[in-house]
Amino acid sequence: MTGFPPDFTWGVAAAAYQVEGAANEDGRTPSIWDTFAHAEGTTADGSTGDVACDHYHRFAEDVALMADLGIDSYRLSVSWSRIVPDASGRPNPAGLDFYDRLLDSLADNGISPAVNLFHWDLPQWAQDAGGWQQRDTAARFAEYAEIVAARLGDRVGTWSTINEMFEHFALGHVTGEHAPGLTLPLEEAAGVVHHLLLASGHAAQVLRGRLMGITSYAPARPHTDSDADRDAAALYDVLQNRLFTDPVLLGRYPAELEPLIEPFVREGDLAVVHAPPDLWGVNYYSINSVRATEGAVPLEVLAPQGFPRTAFGWAVAPEGLTEVLTTLHERYAEHLPPLVITENGCAYDDTVDAAGGCDDLERVVFLDEHLAAVRAAMNAGVDVRGYYVWSLLDNFEWAEGYTKRFGLVHVDYATQRRTPKTSFGWYRDRIAASR
Ligand code: FCB
Q1: CATH number for domain 9-434, candidates 3.30.457.10, 3.40.190.10, 1.10.357.10, 3.20.20.80
Q2: Whose Cα sits closest to atom 9 in ligand 1?
Q3: How do beta strands 409-412 and 417-420 pair?
Q4: What is the DSSP letter of 263?
Q5: For residue 2, is pLDDT > 80?
Q6: pTM listed for this prediction
């Protein structure tokens, strides 16, 4: 089969700090990403998310674009520091009002929101209190979850707690490429792993309704045939592809990493962490080539040779998506809930031409091949329920600033003009054809 079932969920995904802007409005206080991006030399173009796509003010226009696409669901994240601006823990009504307006607008257009509570933008007040190295942050996260659920829960189709714990842990706390920009030794960073999982488990207890986990997956290939590279690839596979799923789905840490995490684990924690959700979200972009190094973290991740590359330098490897889906299916068997592709997409140097169009044929090919890869996994027996393109709009791509464009819609950051790209019309037709 090549088509998708009529009840398959089609969507687009985005995250608060990457699109909202309005960084200082209506009582929002800085998150670690505001602090980080404002520091010298942290983003490729020196930019910040202060304005981003100005989605905070232009959400109605953006929801109209979503309606035009015909999507079933919009995966968004809410900004913790917009909702809980300081350590008192008191909710900010004006911050919640924004999400009220957004959810109402989605409902008016028949679009079901998949709401994620944390897409890397920890409030600076929580970082000042120790951030994810501090166990108490998990408890603060649960309080925040409760506030969001109480106010928005009646309109949320699907909840998720934390996007890509691995990237937030690794890039934010080990390599320092992302906020909060820490370069901790692994023994210390391991606390971040456990506290993220604990936070997610506590939040799962207060969120009513359908719950979805979200992690990134990528096959890890040894860079050469050497034993050292094979071991490095095997270790990376555990770090990225099992460290966060094993505890949630199986209730235990991978044996290889248990000694590292154990000092942070208290009696009863794993029962909290072991909160298997109703769906599991897979963010997939590429496959990795891993080589052994002498560093404190004894490996390095490279783009594999012999593949076309996106503007990010990432290998275009749709077969890797089939592979991660079938691997999850085999690895977790009856413990695995149905899967959803919660992010998939690509960056290209898209420009608006003289006629006012934006012809991103490479993205059309990329998405078409990746959908075929999803279908191949489904044909092999994997239960996949939906697919979200990253992203609706070009947006603030973390350390890359505005230099990497992932949108189905081009954004001119000087004017905030939105121009649907060729891929937008292609995705719309593709969704319509599957109904
Ligand atoms: C993922 C992030 C998302 C976006 C894409 C390109 O790792 O979850 O915010 O930046 O990469």
Answers
A1: 3.20.20.80
A2: 15
A3: antiparallel
A4: G
A5: no
A6: 0.98
